[in-house]
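Hi everyone, sorry if this is the wrong subforum. Our group has a chain we'd like a structural model of before ordering constructs, and none of us has done structure prediction before. Sequence below.
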Amino acid sequence: MEPRHASDATPSSVSESWSLPRGVIVLLGLASLVVCVAGTRAFSGVVGPTFLALMLTVAVHPFPEWLRRKGFPAWTATIIAIVLVYSILLVLVLALVVSTARLATLLPTYADEFDSLVDSVRTLLSNNGIGQDQIQGLMSKIDAGTVFGVIDGLLVDVLGIFSNLLFVLVLLLFMAADGSSFTTRISTLVGTRPDIAGAFVSFSTGTRTYLIVSTIFGLIVAVIDAGALWAMGIPLPVLWGLLSFITNYIPNIGFVLGLIPPALLALLQGGPTLMIAVIVVYSVVNVVIQSIIQPKFVGDAVGLSVTLTFLSLVFWSWVLGPLGAVLAIPSTLMAKALLVDIDPATRWADILMSGGDGRATDAEPDPADPEAAHPEAADSDSEEDVGGAADSDGDEDAALVAGSPRTKKDPAEE
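Answer:
Right subforum, don't worry. Here is the predicted structure as tokens:
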């Protein structure tokens, strides 16, 4: 066997000899991720409101596009969209502030009812053979101030979501102005980096679908809950309806957070029977709408498993605070777009992250497929699709990347 000279080594063999082991690459990636998470948590007061403004901009992006197709000038369409978002946010915050102020004056009037309820519990425990020392140790930390503090703390956390309202409004102004040219820039990016363009379009369409569907069903849940509470005589039904609307964006446990305050008020006002009635009404409404009906409309837009959804709620709440609970799903979709969808080599992770059977992940281009082998021809064919899709709201971004290698295969082709 002849000795192999250094001059005979191919460039690929040289690069392989200098490549880092896969384990070291994984460790470096995890270390970088820890640094990024720590930095995000340290600047959560800026990152959180910034991402909230981005989500609102993504949600309303089809509206100015629709106005421009109807003949409105670009600047007029942008201003109308900004005014619409400003109005919704200001009305929501004003209603929360007024209702919370009313609650602060209402809670002290229930002090006597709370004391009588505590005495009833003491009597019940004593009649069942519980000693006075155990009863005293159990009930010593339960007083009106503690229970009322739970309700106040929850509402303060909700208002904390809008604590940097002025910062969010200013960011919305600039992001809406930049978003007016988003479609044009994505079409330019398709020609140079179709994978990156596809990742951004997938993030924007998935986030927009999630936010719009959650908003519609949140309004339905809020109206039904507020009407039921008003019929049962629970004070401040509008406030609890608003709380149900906001907590509808919190996955998995949002319904429980929205239930606690009205259930406690029902306990103080009408006893255990009224509290159970409130719990039953909330449970039926939220289980039917959020667990049965709403997922059918969301479909595969989010593409996250139930376990990953819950873990994202815990993670982003820890990183960004109460605002992170509301933005858990959009934040995870953004991280998925930047870390997984943007690189063809990491798209295998879609199978593990997505819900269902994982067949909704992006397919790699098939060399035998003419469109996959010749993306230029596919791009020219997709230009006709862009013109036809321009009449539907929010679909023009997806049409722009129809000819990119990120295009999903039809199930029949698979």
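For your construct planning: The chain has a mean pLDDT of 73. The chain is about 75% helix and 0% strand.
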